[in-house]
Prior knowledge:
The structure holds 2 protein chains of 2 kinds. By secondary structure, chain A is mostly beta strands.
Amino acid sequence: xxxxxxxxxxxxxxxxxxxxxxxxxxxxxxxxxxxxxxxxxxxxxxxxxxxxxxxxxxxxxxxxxxxxxxxxxxxxxxxxxxxxxxxxxxxxxxxxxxxxxxxxxxxxxx
Amino acid sequence: xxxxxxxxxxxxxxxxxxxxxxxxxxxxxxxxxxxxxxxxxxxxxxxxxxxxxxxxxxxxxxxxxxxxxxxxxxxxxxxxxxxxxxxxxxxxxxxxxxxxxxxxxxxxxxxx
Lengths: 110, 112
């Protein structure tokens, strides 16, 4: 069974600070996705990365897929209170479907 | 509006009383799946379906059943619920299977 680990599990920062969360596995994935989940709602896709070494930017969020396609990171610049939520990474492999990490719960304080 | 709809959103039941959580999507997606979300464990896949009449077990299928008679619907059946099935359940759909997963709003189930 493929496993994804995420770190840190919890993160509480002040508005304006930068942060990085990590998603790691010993398995290789065909693609990796990042989702954000807010209380009372289902996860919503932020980005999909498919190529080893790929970097994608979404406004203040920067996503990177590891060269070996086993890990990924999410960097947020100048965090805002609206960034608060649970960040989930999900790896996809054909024949294995999606496997989700346990999530990083981010709290951005005003 | 593209959406995945789950019902009920909240349910409290007792051990052994059969229940069904419905899931419907209006995006004509072939792939649908069910997950349960528990603190510290993330989303774990229960069952998935690649198309009508094609279903397969995920990582935690014990105690659950599914059916896919129509493309848009993918109900989750708990024949004899037990307290360890107390959880937050999500239905999701996508096209293709590796594409963006669209999630419902979740169904919070408590089994006493």
